[in-house]
């Protein structure tokens, strides 16, 4: 090999070590402000661009990525590129991959909080007008997403982000293509929001599971408590049956399909209390929408499009803020995308990346570091070591640009169900 060829090879190797970004950004272009939260598979940091001052929520994966192709095949990125921009889907601003260390970071728009945090505030009152507005936006997001051939598979308050009057669907780490091959992962979605078919049918379920989750979310918005807080899968089914009743034999047989003869479910008969005694203060239209979203038989369950036409949402009002969507995703060709018209992992039946936990949460006390901390690329994704803080205490802190963080407590252990497995999902 001559000297010119050797020089070209060295330059090629150096290029491989540089961070790749859809907007040319590098990790060192950002300043760490604080940690917003962490889950089993990733952590979220509040960061600020050193030059333009723009603030983002950076989701950084613990998994080591070996190549840009592996990053491209990440289901979450594929879904967000297919869905962005949309007023009710969280905006992915940039994808930053550091091939030298195998670190992948996703920069998102920064939202105020998630819906669970908003609902669980002691003195927060959510009026019927506001509840309708939130549900209208959630159903718009679901209709758009399902129309694009994607279902979320983890609809819950923690995955719905809020800023001012706007709500946006987030955390697409569990999503799948609607037309991808079944069976899917059995153990998907967070237990309290898991539909009956996900609990019973060994990975045979559809996008209708998202509608069940939406029904649970609407109930939680108007009641401020979860509807089915099961302690395990069997308890989850018992709680569902205690409210909506045990399914008719023909419904159960249809749901189980060919496995009906080999699987024995001896559920004690329960007529079910119904939803009304649990939320006597809501309107008849609200109650009817929840009942249609929580139909036991997924074939009888209302779709997002039908929900948008429901009388409860007919007079719902949403005042959209000024369009803050940045130009990065209006010209998505700048990002490393799959070729137009090509079949992505969302549409295939291959196993994908493990789903991420809900991690848009208030900050535990960060370590004082002048720049973004590094992650051990070979660290094990041990769920037992993951910290969660979905029950944050009131926190008071100053902007790190103006002083040091003060009075920020450590994360409180996660008391809501966290059933996402550490294995890859399908």
UniProtKB/TrEMBL annotation:
Binding site for ATP: 59
Protein kinase domain residues: 30-313
Main location: nucleus
GO molecular function: ATP binding; protein serine/threonine kinase activity
GO terms for cellular component: nucleus
Disordered: annotated segments: 1-22, 327-426
Subcellular location: Nucleus
Assigned keywords, A-Z: ATP-binding, Kinase, Nucleotide-binding, Nucleus, Serine/threonine-protein kinase, Transferase
CDD domains hit by this protein: STKc_MOK
One Pfam assignment: Pkinase
The family this protein is said to belong to: Belongs to the protein kinase superfamily.
Annotated protein name in UniProt: Protein kinase domain-containing protein
Organism (species): Rhizophlyctis rosea
